[in-house]
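User: quick one, sequence for these tokens?
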């Protein structure tokens, strides 16, 4: 799921109809369920990306050290690395590697989605309290 899709859904679901607060109160558990399911899927995808990154990182380290076997290189679509890199310089190559950079960016985007969903769930957890306050305020305005 794209982060834009999450923002679009939340843009619609975040709106509370002040003229029907009781109906809005009843919707809270359903919305909580909806976003918790999305959060769970996106969190597991984040964990998967983080674990895949560990394998990529190890393979790239071995690649730049000249220790990666040809079959693994071939399966990843990498050409043999012709330079001899000293152990202390491997980090420079790893930091500038496009596969590593893209994997890090993908993980960062996935982390952002998880963080946004956490914030939405937190907001939904507090929504019943806010609705109750609004109902109490309406009663106060009516003189009850």
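Assistant:
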């Amino acid at each position: 799921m794209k982060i834009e899709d999450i923002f679009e859904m939340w843009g619609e679901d975040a709106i509370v109809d002040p003229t029907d607060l009781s109906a809005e109160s009843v919707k809270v558990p359903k919305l909580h369920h909806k976003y918790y399911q999305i959060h769970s899927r996106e969190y597991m995808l984040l964990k998967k990306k983080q674990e895949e990154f560990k394998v990529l990182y190890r393979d790239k380290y071995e690649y730049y050290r000249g220790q990666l076997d040809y079959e693994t290189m071939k399966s990843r679509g990498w050409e043999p690395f012709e330079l001899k890199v000293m152990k202390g310089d491997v980090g420079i190559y790893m930091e500038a590697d496009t596969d590593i950079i893209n994997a890090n960016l993908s993980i960062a985007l996935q982390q952002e989605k998880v963080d946004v969903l956490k914030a939405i769930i937190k907001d939904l957890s507090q929504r019943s309290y806010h609705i109750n306050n609004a109902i109490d305020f309406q009663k106060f305005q009516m003189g009850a």
